[in-house]
Amino acid sequence: MTTEEDSRRLAELGYKQELARTWSGFSNFAISFSIISILAGCFTTFGQAWNNGGPIAISWGWPLISVFILIIGFCMSELVSAYPTAGGIYWWAAKLGKPIHGWFTGWLNLIGLVAVTASVDYGCATFLNITLNRLTGGAWEGTLPQAFLLFVIVLALHALINIYSHKLISLLQNVSVWWHVAGAAIVVAILIFAPENHQSASFVFFGTNNSSGFGDGSDGLPFWLYVLPLGFLLTQYTITGFDACAHVSEETQGAARSAARGLWQSIFYSAIGGWILLLSFLFAATHVDEINKNAGFVGTIFDTALSSPLATAIFAISTIGQFFCGMSCVTSMSRMTYAFSRDGAVPGWRLWSKVDRNRTPVNAIIAGCVAAALITLPALYAPAGLTTPVAFYAVVSIAVIGLYLAFLIPIWLRLRMGDAFQPGPWTLGRKYKALCWIACVEIVIVSIYFIMPFSPAGVPGSADFTWTSVNYAPIAVGVVLIGIALWWALSARHWFTGPRRTIDEVPAA
């Protein structure tokens, strides 16, 4: 498909070509692959799975949940093929349903993208904090305030790259893919050949661990029904953000095919690479007591199994991968902000929907990064003994819930539409019914689990309750849902009509 054909298809959907359509199909795949980033999520949320289930939450949980996420990806690939617009998920919901569906989808998606940007950049700052501490021999202390300072610096750098280097972003997305492939391969090789000892296959595939504080640390019924599913947050969080393929579809050549293909392939290849990487972690986890002592922090595996230089090299590889990931997150978030504002949904929409002379939504980039910094402020505080603040996992949960609920609405609407849906060149055919049902049920279940407390200290009314242990995801998501519902009922339903056309006629073929 030529650029003219892409622009004509966009015009049929109601928009003129304002963003520069310079991205190749590989670049479209690359942004989602970079946002999924096995060098980010597999490292930063490893402790969540280790403490809540242990090895089985990783060795079996990862491929199991990956299959469900791939099904969600297939459903979304069909939708992006039919409607390749920057608004992506929000546009699909408004098209397949009513303005109210677009309203809720857009806000959930936007909140999820802000949260995933915050969590990725905070994870990057955490690993950079550790790397600097190791490289300086402790001169850089690596405190929580220092981690937050690095987080703000990383966030600012990502904003600047996105503002001033449109062409560089596309190039860096491509570089990021190869960094993730080569970097992960190097980490796996180090963990195979450098340690003196490895864990047994029985430990990796059948070992359990319950350091959550629930169920007295046993593997009884509470373990299987509550604790272990909390460990699945590792997979559900890592393999997310793949909607980026849709958000940059107005900048992608041959978007109706390449964006659909890029979306599901980014999930598929990340699932395989991530599983191999995580298995290498588990086989190298020979000092279980020490890992438990450090709340499942993945860096403890490297410190106990490797020499200091090799452990530092792994931290550096992951940090750079996370930097690429955060850069891609800002790109996706800003395109969603631009598209949703273009349709008048965001307060001050005229400001956020502007593009500069380089056809870049500068104001949308700045606004999203500022919001990401604000919701991460609680990470300045952490319960004693924890390497990672509970607030980090809360922001992770907000990202997962916001994004996946945003995915749920258009998938459900497509299922409800049935054969009346007009697919694009990439379609599920008759399989859409089974796949859409599976996707909807899985999203509802994980959203319920990820608003639950992560530890007994986060349960209101418990003897050791502390506010720093609270999973504030349900509070944040609940306040937002109530807020946008009230906003809709009292005001938006009178003026928000969904996507606004920015073009009067479709260019002739």
Task: Characterise the protein shown here.
Helix 6 crosses helix 21. It contains 23 helices and 2 strands. The chain has 509 residues and is an all-alpha fold. The protein has a single domain, classed as Amino acid/polyamine transporter I, CATH 1.20.1740.10. The chain has helices spanning 3-12, 25-36, 41-44, 46-51, 55-59, 61-82, 89-96, 99-135, 144-164, 166-193, 201-206, 221-231, 233-238, 244-247, 255-284, 288-293, 299-305, 308-342, 349-352, 362-375, 390-417, 432-449, 473-495; strands spanning 52-53, 209-210. Helices cover 68% and strands 1% of the residues. A two-stranded antiparallel sheet has the order 1-2. Its main location: membrane. It comes from [Actinomadura] parvosata subsp. kistnae. GO terms for molecular function: transmembrane transporter activity.
> What's the helix-strand series?
HHHHEHHHHHHHEHHHHHHHHHHHH
CATH class placement = Mainly Alpha
Distance between the termini: 12 Å
Assembly category: single chain
The CATH homologous superfamily is called Amino acid/polyamine transporter I
- Total number of helical segments? 23
CATH topology call: Amino acid/polyamine transporter I
SS-derived structural category: mainly alpha
Query: Uncertain runs with pLDDT below 50, 5 residues or more?
Result: none
User: What is the number of independent domains?
Assistant: 1
- Radius of gyration using CA atoms only: 22 Å
Strand portion: under 5%
| Spatial sequence of strands, sheet with the most strands | 1-2
Overall strand count:
2
> What is the typical, i.e. mean, pLDDT?
89
Largest sheet: 2 strands, antiparallel
The CATH architecture assignment turns out to be Up-down Bundle
